[in-house]
Structures are given as C-alpha cells and as structure tokens.
Amino acid sequence: MGCFDMGFKEYVGKRTLHGVVTIFLAVTLNFILFRIMPGDPTRAVSGDPRVDTATRLALIAKFGLDRPLFEQYFIYLYNLLRGELGISFVQIGRPVIDIILGRKMVNTIILMGSSMFIAFILGIVAGVFAAWRRGTKIDIFFIVFSLATYSMPVFWFGMLLLLFFSYYINIFPIAGTITPGVVHANFFEYAKDYLHHLMAPMITLGVSFFGGYFLFMRDTILDVFTEDYMLTARAKGLSNRNILFKHAMRNALLPMVSLMGVHITFLISGATMTETVFSWDGLGRLIYDSVRNNDYPVLQGIFLLMAVLVVVASILADVVNAFLDPRIKEAVD
Amino acid sequence: MAQERLTKGSLRRERFSTSVRRLRGFWALYKQSHIAMFGLFLVLAFIAVALAAPWVAPYDPRALVGKPFERPGEDHILGTDQVGRDIYSQLIWGSRISLMVGLFASVFSVAIGTAIGLVSGYLRGPIDTVLMRITDLFITLPSIPLMLILAAIIGRSVWNIILVIAVTGWTGTARMVRAQTLSIKERPYVEAARSVGARDSQIMFRHILPNIIPLIFANAIVGIVNAILAESGLSFLGLGDPTKPSWGLILRHANEVGAMATGRLWFIIPPGVCIMLIAIGFAFSSYSLDQIMNPRLRERRG
Amino acid sequence: MMPVLEVHDLVTNYITRQGNVDAVSHVNFTVEEGQTFGLAGESGCGKTTAAMSIMGLLPSNGRVMGGQIILDGEDLLKKDERELRKIRWKKISIVFQGAMNALNPVLNVGEQIAEVILEKEEITKNDATDRVRELFDLVEIEPSRIVDYPHEFSGGMRQRVMIAMALACYPKLVIADEPITALDVIVQNQILDLMKDLQRKLNLSQILITHDLSVIAETCDKVGIMYAGKLVEYADAGPVFKTPIHPYTSALIGAYPSIVGEKKTLNFIPGSPPNLINPPRGCRFHPRCPYAKDICSQEEPGYVEEEPGHYAACHFVTELRERLRLED
Question: Which B residues in the span 21-40 are in contact with A, Cβ-Cβ below 8 Å?
C-alpha cells in the first residue's frame, strides 16, 4: 500500500504541472490578444480617453508600454505575480484586482456552486432511476425534458422563469442579489433575502445543466449494466439496492466526476448569461458590462481569473477521480 | 466478359457508383429512425422558410410598420416590438442568420479542428505536443466569455460572430480527429502507402481523411446546434449586428424593455421557441447518425 | 449417491427480431453429489445458455419455455426472482471466465467476497473477513492480499479469486463456465490442478462447461456432449472418450491431435453449426454427418441407451458403434 501514496502524489504533481503550463499559456494568450488589438496597442492598458494624463503616464511606466513588445511581456508577467493587473477604465483608478477578487467573485462562485450541486445530485439520482426503469414513462419523460432543456438557450429559460414566477406568480424577485435599499437586521435576515434572490438564477442554471448530467449518468449506468461484473453481482444473489448503488453507481460516478471537471467552463459560460438576465452581481455580469463599456483591463483580469479557476477545478476533479478509482494509479506507476 | 481497360476514368466512375450505393444504403437506414426523420423535417422546414423569406414575411423586418408593443392581431400575427417592427417578419428573417451562422461556424470550426487533429496525430513529436497544449488551453477557456472578449476586440458583426464561434469551438473535433488519425496511422494500408513512397500530405488526404469523414460529418451537425445556441447568446448580449434581425436580438430587445415584467408573452416566447425547434431539429437529425456510421467504421477496423 | 441437480427436458429460447432461437432443446442430465459433470460442445451449442437457465440469469430476451430444474428437491423454474436470489450463491454458485471484467474494478477483492457472505449468513464482519482469508488460503493466494484490487492480480490469480468467491457460502453445486479458457497454457494447468484438488478436498459437486475436450477428459466423471441445443451423447467420461457412439462426438475427439500414437491427418467437421431460429428438420447434426441417411432428415432421434448409462441421440447407434471404434 506504500506504492499507492507515491503513485498518487506523483499523479497530483504531474497534473498540477500540466495545469501550471496551461495557465501560463492562458496568460500569454491574454497578453497577445490585448496587445495586438487593432489600433493603438496600449489601448488595452492605458490608452483610453477616460484615463487622465497623470494616471496614463503612471501606467506607461508601470507596464513599460513605451518599450518593445518583447520586454513588455516580461514586465507583464512580473506585474502579474505581484498582483498588479492595471486599473479599470470605468471605475477610474480602481485596481482591477480589487474589482474582480471581491464580492463579485463570491457571488458567482455561490451561483455556480449551488447550481452545479443541485444539477449533479438530481442528475445522478434521476439518471440511475431512469436507467433502472429503462423504457418506462418516467424514463421517457426525463429524456424529453433533458433534450428540451438542452436545446433551450439558457438565457431564454431564465426569461421564461422570470415571466412566470415574477410576473404571473410573484415568488421570485426580478433582479439582483438582494433587495435594493433594504437594510437587514442581522446576518440571518440578509442570508434569507440573498437566498431568495438566488433561487431563480440557480434554478435556471441548474436546470440547464441537469439535462447533460442526467443523460450522461443514464448512458454510463446503462453501459455499466452490460459489464461482466454486473452479471457476477446478479449471480451472487445480491439485493437490487446493493447491485445498483454499490456496484453500478460507484463505477458510473467515475466518469461523472471527470465530466464535472470539464463542465466548469460551461458553467462559467452559463453563469455569464444567467447573471445578465437576472442582474446577478457577479463576474459574468461584469464581463457583460465591461464589454459594453470597453473596459479592457477588467476584461483581461477576468480572463485570467477564469483560466485559473477552470484549471484549479479540473485538477481537483482529476485528483478526486484518481482517488476514487484504484486503477488510475496503475497508469501512473 | 471483355476485359475493361483500367483507366483513371473508369476508376473514378467506379468510386462514384460505390459512393452512390453507399449513400443509398445509408439513407435507407436513416429513414428507419423516426426521431431522425422528424429532426430532418424541422431542419428542412427552417431552411425552406429562410430561403423563402422575402416572399413569406409580411413586412420588412427592419421597418416600423406598427405601433410599439402591439399585441398579436390581424395586422401582426405576433405583434410588434418596442419600436413597432413586426415580430413575425423578424422571426422569419432571423432564420437566415441562425442557419447561416450555424452552418458556417460549424464548418469552419470542424475544418480547423480536423486540420489540427490530422497534423497533430500524423506528425506527432513536438508539433503534436504544442498543438495539444494549445488545444487544452482552448478547452479550458470558457467559450462565452472568450467569445465576448474576442468580439470586444475585433468588433461586432455577423461574420465576427461566425469567426468567434469557430475559433472557440474546434477543440472537440481536433481531439477526435487526432485519436482517429493515431489509430488509422497504424493500419497496414497506410504502412503500405508509406513504403511505396507516398508523401505525407498524400497519405493524410487520400488515406486517412476519407476514413474519418463520417465522424467529422457527425461532429459538424452537433456543432451546428452549439453554434446556433452560441449565436443567439451572443446576439442577446449585444454582440451581433443590430441591423440584422436575429432571434437572439429580439430577445435582447425584450430583455432591455423589461418585457418579462410587463408580461409581453408574444415578445418573449416565439423567438425562444424558434431557437429551440431548430436546435432540436439538428440534434435529432444527428441522432442515429452515430449508430449508422459507427458499425461501418467497425467493419473497417482491421 | 444422491443427485444434487436434476435437469429434465429443459427448453430455453431467445426471442429476437428475426425469430425464436431454440437455444436449448429438451436437455436432460443429472449431477450426482461429489461428481463433476462436464458439458461440452462448440461455441453456440447452448451449454452456457443451459447454465444461465439453471441460475436464472438469462438476459431479458431469454425465456425458459419448459422443463424442470430440481435442486435439493425444489424446482427452480417455479420460483420467483426473490426466492431465486436467496438460493443464488448459497446453494449454487458460478465461476465465470475470470476476465478483467468479471470482478468489480473499484472494490477490493476481499470486499467482493465478504459482501456475499454477509448478505447470505448471520455472521459478523470479522468472521466473514476471516473466512475470506481461509478461502484465499484454500486457493493458494496470500491471505494478506484480500485488500488488493482486481487489476493488481494476474489472470490466473483472478481466476483463483473467482473460485474462492464461488466457494464462499459453501454451495451445494458450483458451475464453472469456461474457467480456464482465457488463460495461458501453463496457468491453465495450475488452475485445473487446483480445481481437482478442491473437488477432492471439499467433495464438491460441479458442472464444468467448456469446449475443450481435453479438460473434460482430465477432470470429469460424467460427460454430456451438446450440439445445436441438443444433448447428443451422455455417459461416464471413460466410455465417451474410449467408445463414443455419436458421430459428432467421434468427430470432435478425432479433431484433437494426439501427442503419442501415430501421425494421422486431423479430421475436421465440414460445415458449420446450424441457425437455431430454423434448425434442420430431424436430427440437427444430419447436414454435417458423414453417415446420414434419409430418416435423419425427417425424424428426430430419441435417446438410445446403447450400454448401461451410455446414451446417444442417433438413429444408427448400434450400427455405427463398431464403425466408429474402428475409425479411431
């Protein structure tokens, strides 16, 4: 069992190295994208009419914008490591890093996390159930439901939700993370209001992901059912519950975990659209606003943050997967 | 039987008739799936509408032909939008944008993906490593934000949307093509071709590519669904051409004037339904493609 | 000796879109206590289907259409799924081809064996684990390996694990379906020796299913030869191999080269097994039988007891007996 530790640590190490390389590439891509923009290459950092001269000069000095591109690249990397991402054009003077690593990021993570969680749990349970009761009405219902939500644009679904549950039946609030203008008595009150506002966007994002998880889980379990060890489990006369959850599901969960790692990117995309529809104060909404206002430094910052988030999440998913699947160690050793 | 001369012409004719025969067999199988046929019907319906737009749409979609926010009625089947344009006409013309973007973006992204996958899988070595790292990078980056950022940089127009979708969507195809190339490369006939002295490019195009075309085709169809959804999303966020009617654009207008809060159903529901139907159409059309194409690939596998 | 299992007139079909596959057609055999019964035949002859019918593990399109399967005085075919589940592994167990996939890859082997013990018996976890260790000892695997995962074992070791698992609840009958086919020759011998050893030690009753006649010759007390869903010859092992009376059996045996003895041309049986959706009229072997006459394509042969305990399904058993002996 000692070899387990060494193989596993090695795997984590290798995987992390992979991730670092990817982040590095993202960083470089970021640099290239925003410096080879049409027009003035410094437009992305400082060359915007909203920036006053003094600040512009300071930025030029800090980022070496008067130096050749090659040098700028290294200054850029250096600044990055120091957490220096420039300043926003819209919120003049405010450092980008302040804007992105704050309230907004937390709001987005809460939205993404909760949506993925319910989509995952419901998707797994429904998937297992539908596979077990294959071909029955409930199976078909879930399949049709998943296909429908998959072909629905997520923002439209959000709009429909708002239409029916804010306009026709007033359960959900229209927009925002908390009711504007209200002062809350304590944290509990605040949390209640926050959660109330979280409901609609969370359901929107969750439902749009449920379909994918459900279909994948159902497919995977059906595949698992055809494996020889399932016949062995049946031959052993084990109970249905045992066969389904201990033998089938554990095997089917493995690819699901990998899938979740890949899905983080889609989650961010979906969150962007959802936050826009519901005016949820998060990074997605920030992207939208920044695109509208040509706030390039903020865009660069979000780009980097997202790359980091996705890489970290996918490393986590792979590590969890390796931890759960005893066979992966073999591939490493 | 008289000996037929084996000419280039006769070979070409033979290959043609074999392909025709294969396609006929394929169609016979395809017809059997109700789901696929339903999907095909939807797709063809939308294509028909798109092509016949100038004659089917009652009004010019950009013209102000009525009062703002008119409810559905005699003059306007689906009412008017916030400035008085006919929504029904916008829907009809909008099918052109969706289809055009869907098809072009998908074709481009599949082309990029195939090129990268083929080169990467065939040449291997450092080129493979670099290309695969780049592919990993693009898989990592979330598509909508990336598209937003790219659009912010290069400006807003329909062609830019196509470009942006293509540039962010090729990774799936690339990975698949690379995997296929790796396996096909090892087959005896490829080795034979190489030993006879065929050039790399010849091998890639004459031997490997034809074998993966069915899979590429299936990928392209799925890509269309994603491209259409992406287009509607980007238009919704305001990155499309504001002068070209697109379903996403209609929804954008609806969102901006708070149609949800004022209960203007006719504004919100029809464009979304159209997007859904066309997405379902393409999704269903590709449903049995996998099953039809795969067994044939399995036959060829060594 | 008491019979452990009696199979009477078993008929099993598979329902397919092209028609009903008559996979097992009126098969009879008995397994005595402490005996090993060998079920032999080409792939597709129905032997695995017969085994699955006994265990009640047919796929969803498989149906037992008739017959009786009497285990311990009870007809298994009259039982519902819940009752069968109780019987499975406790009274009758099965060893599959120990390919990678017959064991669950994400659970360790000890867990997979212990779970069935715990489910079938009132026993503490510790005792169950002890028994697993004993079982490993029995099959000659290091007991400390009960926490290892299936992929950490070689093919031969995995087969030992499968055997240990089959014995976990001390069943009355063990079915072994091609237990050594997937292994390489040297390992095959080891496992075969192990199985013979266990059979002796524990007085096991077994059904051994295989297409490999040499294995049957080495290990079985009684043999049933199957062809196209029918049992064509049934006798003790000695007589079947020394004096086969069915043309198919004789051809099968003739198809095996002998290391000792003079060089002969290998006989092979021309043609291929019939389509069981539309089996040939009369004797199912007649299209490939060198001795076939008109009656063979019209009437199905019944069982002829040529010698006490030695049955064959052929119209010309007596006439062929001498001829077949000469040709060997």
Answer: none
Residue B4 lies in a domain: no
Chains that touch B (3 or more CB pairs under 8 A): A
Scanning the structure block, which residue is given the tokens 């699947």? A325
Structural domains in chain B (count): 1
- Do A235 and C93 lie within an 8 Å CB cutoff? yes
CB contact under 8 A, A272 and B229: no
- Asked whether the beta carbons of C4 and C205 are under 8 A apart, the reply is yes
Contacts of A227 in chain C (CB under 8 A): 101
Radius of gyration of chain B (CA): 23
**What was the ipTM of the complex prediction?**
0.85
Min Cα distance A233 → chain C (Å) is: 9
Inspect the structure and tell me whether chains C and A have 3 or more CB pairs less than 8 Å apart.
yes
Tens-digit pLDDT profile for residues A225-267: 888 899 999 999 888 888 888 888 888 888 888 888 778 888 8
* Structural domain boundaries enclosing B234: 18-301
How far is it, in rounded angstroms, from Cα A43 to Cα A35? 8
Q: At what angle do helices A154-162 and A187-225 cross, to 10 degrees?
A: 130
Whose structure tokens read 């001269």? A53
How do C36-40 and C173-177 pair as beta strands? unpaired
Mutate to test the interface with B, among A31, A105, A285, A291 (most CBs of B within 10 A): A291
Q: Tell me, yes or no, if A136 comes closer than 8 A to chain C by beta carbon.
A: no
**CB-defined contacts A:B, below 8 A:** 150
C104-129 confidence digits (pLDDT tens): 988 889 999 999 999 888 889 999 99
Whether B129 is covered by a domain: the verdict is: yes
Q: What is the CATH number of the domain that holds B59?
A: 1.10.3720.10
Cα–Cα dist B222/B283, whole Å: 6
CB proximity list for A130: less than 8 A, separation 6 or greater: A138, A139, A142, A143, A214, A218
Contact B251 A156 (CB under 8 A): yes
Q: CB-based contacts of A32: which residues, under 8 Å, 6+ apart?
A: none
Query: Tens-of-pLDDT digits for all 302 residues of chain B?
Result: 455 667 777 778 887 888 788 778 777 777 777 888 888 899 999 999 999 888 888 888 788 877 787 777 777 777 877 888 888 888 899 999 889 999 999 999 999 999 999 888 888 889 898 898 889 888 888 888 888 888 777 777 888 889 888 988 898 899 989 988 888 888 887 788 778 877 777 767 777 787 888 888 888 888 899 899 999 988 888 887 888 888 999 998 888 887 777 778 888 889 999 999 999 888 888 777 766 666 544 443 33
Question: How far is the C-alpha of B10 from the C-alpha of B4, rounded, in Å?
Answer: 9
CA distance A186 to chain B (A): 30
Q: How far from each other are the two terminal CA atoms of chain B, in whole angstroms?
A: 33
Indicate if the pLDDT at residue A23 is higher than 60. Answer: yes
B with C: touching (≥3 Cβ pairs within 8 Å): no
The arrangement of strands across the sheet holding C310-313 comes to C92-95, C173-177, C205-210, C36-40, C222-227, C230-236, C310-313, C303-307
B49 in a structural domain = yes
Q: Chain B interface, mutation test: which of A163, A296, A311, most B Cβ atoms within 10 Å?
A: A163
- Alpha helix stretches (DSSP H) within B170-285: 171-185, 188-196, 200-202, 209-236, 247-256, 265-285
B6 in a structural domain: no
Q: What is the pLDDT of residues B68-91, one digit of tens each?
A: 877 777 777 778 778 888 888 888
